[in-house]
Amino acid sequence: MRTVAVVGTGLIGTSLALALVRRGLTVHLEDADPDAARTAASLGAGTTDPADGPVDLAVVAVPPALVGRVLADCQRRGLAHRYTDVASVKAGPRADVTALGCDTTHYIGSHPMAGRERTGPLAARADLFEGRPWVLTPTADTDTETLNAALEMVALCGAMPIVMDAGAHDRAVALVSHAPQLLSSLVAARLEHADETAVRLAGQGVRDVTRIAGSNPAMWVDILSANAGVVADILDELAADLGETVTALRALEAADEAGRRSGAAGIEAVLRRGNNGQARIPGKHGAPPTRYETVAVVLGDQPGELGRLFGEVGALGVNIEDVAIEHSTAQQVGFVQLSVAPSAVARLNTALREHGWSVRSV
Fold first, then answer.
1. Which SUPFAM superfamilies does this UniProt record tie to the protein (predicted)?
2. Which SS3 state, helix, strand or coil, does residue 335 take?
3. Domains of the chain, each with CATH number or no CATH
4. d(Cα 326, Cα 337) in Å, to the nearest integer?
């Protein structure tokens, strides 16, 4: 594959174009908003000049509701030999593609499982897809060459291909992406009119839960509109769980001991179910989750401190498996939580204290 057309230069389209240009491909950019295409081109994502003839692959990077119409237009113009899209929902666009009479032999749906809270070409990154799953949803008549072209695109972006049925994909992303987005927004909405003193107490827990609530509402309306029924089904189940949890919490306030025991048992059951679900999320490099221990270090908010800490940990021969930073709202310090192998905790605590670092108990 040498030439690609990217139709739609938002976050995903521009990131894809940047990744392919970095690998030496010629990328032609199109967008309904010419300014967006020119911005992407100025970032090094390709050229706005039209291709001399059909490119090897055209990538339709538009909202789910527009995929069918844009694909039909691209095929009518003979833009490419083969086509894919990168919409976050697959069943709806596939139905539109079929209804519009598009050529499905040379088309395959796809969805890179990557994104950011920011949108538009200026938020794009060439490494956005590296190490991320990238779902491919071939139709019954997608030919082998089209599948291979999509696999090559995924490989060039450093992602991991996963072949799925379109409906199964939509049910999966409703569970792991779309419903969590709404829940994050609902929790964050509780803060909108909260007392300022309460908001200033926000720690890492609420920051973790509400991080994706900063996402673009218009973009999510497009996504959720294309997968509304499946997401609603999941939220119905969550609503039932919430109802039972509220009942259990009310029972904890009961005057009789039996009521309080019943409430405690209900809350414990919810928390244990959460433990079990969280434990199923894949760990490092997709391996089964590994139990790491946390070493928390107080870090001054000044240039070079984080690099110095990482350097000293590395010099000790300790691998940092994960890292999180919690910022103090009252002082110019942060709390860096280093996830390391349990066998390294005691040695790391001692060495860091000897080097003058303030180490917190976790």
1. 6-phosphogluconate dehydrogenase C-terminal domain-like, ACT-like, NAD(P)-binding Rossmann-fold domains
2. strand
3. 3-164 (3.40.50.720), 196-284 (no CATH), 293-360 (3.30.2130.10)
4. 8
